[in-house]
Design brief:
Layout (H helix, E strand, L loop, with lengths): L1 E4 H11 L3 E6 L2 E6 L4 E4 L2 E9 L5 E6 L6 E2 L1 E5 L2 E3 L11
Antiparallel strand pairs: 1-8, 2-3, 3-4, 4-5, 5-6, 6-7, 8-9
């Protein structure tokens, strides 16, 4: 199962002090705009949310394309990306 973690994308950008960029990830185009809160990965578009970080700056989250909740990881099952709850990764105990 394919997954995207927000830290994988935002951490290198924070270290470089940039908020926009275009790169390649797993052979697909990745376009990031932290100012306008979106990521485009291949043919997929993901909206982001941000909250103030505890040590300054911002913390970024994906907005799940299925339910709209904030999440740190998106999982791809069949053709859709979604949070762990929507993709039945996180099970109640």
């Amino acid at each position: 199962m394919e997954q995207l973690a927000i830290e994988t994308i935002t951490k290198p950008m924070k270290l470089r002090g940039i908020s926009k960029g275009i790169a390649e990830l797993d052979g697909r185009k990745l376009e990031i705009d932290l100012d306008n809160l979106y990521i485009t990965f291949g043919s997929n578009h993901f909206d982001l949310a941000s909250i103030p970080g505890t040590k300054g700056g911002n913390r970024y989250f994906f907005l799940c394309p299925i339910c709209g909740n904030r999440c740190r990881k998106l999982y791809k099952r069949l053709l859709l990306y979604g949070c762990g709850s929507c993709q039945k990764i996180h099970k109640t105990t």
